[in-house]
Amino acid sequence: MRAEARRALACAVAAAGLAWPAGQAASALARPVPAGEHARRVAAELVVVAGDARRLAQGAALPLERAGLRARIAGSLASLPLLLRHAGSDAEAVPVLRAAAARGDWSALGAALRTLQRAHPFDPGALASAPPTPERLALGKAIHAQSCAACHDAPAADAALPARDLYAMARSAPRAEFAARLLLGVRGDRSTAYRNPFSDLELGALLAWYVHGARAGGG
Ligand code: HEC
């Protein structure tokens, strides 16, 4: 796909086309949301927003991407009350987060998020702790080549939210944060109600590959 066409696409993976050499089915298709999943999603969302706020606080991104990150934070905070209620929690902390984000006060946002995160700790569990066995690395490599590489191995430099280099991300972000980004960053298509089409086993294989595998081109 040409870069101009790709740039507009968010991180959507066509679940219908998924077929791994290792014979792993995309087992998450059309599954109901399991118990505990709402709590995990809220916790992961808080981790990603905190990570984006940290990148902004550190001046990590270029101006266009900073605008993209600000917009993504605003979007996350807009849907956070609903996510919190799904997880059985109240949303009284959200206005404080929104006010800090609106001011562009990323360290205040980070501090307020840390308080909220104590009530919603993110546990990546098996997703992040599975050892990088040869089978797991092979599965992660195959999924990446088939479903991710086309966008993420040649990021558009001029996008507000580019498809970032996942190897670099895996090796620079804290492990739990990268796991949360994998959990939330990949969306399926209509066949999965736009939920992440991958099982924890598959996401764990991807994580292992990005952390321990060799990126395309050798590095
Ligand atoms: C059609 C192009 C495309 C494909 C295919 C694709 N992505 Fe993405 N991805 C993007 C874009 C663009 C973004 C940034 C915007 C966004 O967050 O949706 C992104 C965002 C992400 C993020 C979130 C990064 C962050 O800043 O939090 C992760 C993680 C990710 N992708 C992983 C993957 C993985 C793993 C696959 C393969 C299973 C994949 N993507 C397939 C285009 C793509």
What does this structure look like?
The protein is mainly α and 219 residues long. 58% of the residues lie in helices and 0% in strands. It contains ten helices and no strands. Helix 2 (37-57) runs antiparallel to helix 3, helix 3 runs antiparallel to helix 4 (94-103) and helix 8 packs across helix 10 (200-212). The radius of gyration is 17 Å and the shape is globular. 33% of the residues are buried. Residues 1-8 and 19-30 have low confidence and may be disordered. It binds heme C (HEC). Heme C (HEC) binds next to helix 7 and helix 9.
| Spatial extent as radius of gyration | 17 Å
| Tally of individual helices | 10
Please state the average pLDDT score.
Answer: 84
Instruction: Report the order of strands and helices.
Output: HHHHHHHHHH
* Protein structure class: mainly alpha
**Ends: how far apart?**
24 Å
- Residue share in β-strands: under 5%
Fraction of residues in H or I helices: 55-70%
Tell me, briefly, the overall form: globular
Q: How are the secondary structure elements laid out?
A:
Blueprint: H1 3-7, H2 37-57, H3 63-86, H4 94-103, H5 106-119, H6 126-129, H7 134-152, H8 166-172, H9 175-185, H10 200-212
List keywords for this structure.
single chain; 0% strand; globular; 219 residues; binds heme C; 10 helices
Entry summary:
This protein is mostly helical.
